[in-house]
Amino acid sequence: MQNSKKHSISVVLPCLNEEETLGASIAKAKEGITKTGLDGEVIIADNGSQDHSVKVAKNAGARVIEVMRRGYGAALMGGFAAAKGDLLVMGDADDTYDFREIPLLYQKYLEGYDFVSGNRLQGNIDPKAMPFIHRYVGVPILTLALNLFFWTGIWDGHCGMRLFSKKAYHLMHLTSLGMEFASEMLMKAKM
Fold it and tell me: What average pLDDT values come out for the chain (191 residues) when binned by 10 residues?
């Protein structure tokens, strides 16, 4: 069991021109934080949006961090560096993850896991959310490969919704600036 210290959550969403889905993602993230009973914040790590993403984020009550260095990993690392919470949640700003499920990830943290990854392959998936080939071929095969080489114990190696302690994040020493950041995280989380 983790210690009984009162935690706080920082949900960090990388953003590049996400004005159409950003408001819904922020609202769900705020609801998820509230459901945990913890204090928290939503950070939008903006990576140079040319649309109204920054305005949408601010109007929705998120804190916007401008990350000049380009890339998915760079944006997340910029957001994590600015985070006030001792627990970090990452996901995408395109409304593909239901952040109202943050309490499920937090419960696993309370059970003793410093790193928790979502699993899109269990439960209900909107038929339009993931193409057949990804759900039944691509994701399972890539997850199998990840587990063969690194035995991560992860069931969905490409789920981008994750919760981890800030301490665990610092121990991973992540360096990838692009999309490979997500895979590097899974490999190093096991170490």
Answer: 74 98 98 97 98 98 98 97 98 92 94 77 52 48 54 57 94 92 76 51
Residue 93: how many other CB atoms lie within 10 Å: 31
**What backbone phi and psi angles, to 5 degrees, belong to 159?**
-75, 125
DSSP, collapsed to helix, strand or coil, labels residue 30 as helix
Q: What is the 3-state secondary structure (H, E, C) of 72-84?
A: HHHHHHHHHHHCC
Beta bridge partners of 66: 46
d(Cα 191, Cα 179) in Å, to the nearest integer?
Answer: 20
Q: Which residue has the tokens 């950003």?
A: 22
Beta carbons of 99 and 21 less than 8 angstroms apart: no
Q: What is the C-alpha separation between 173 and 142, in angstroms, rounded?
A: 23
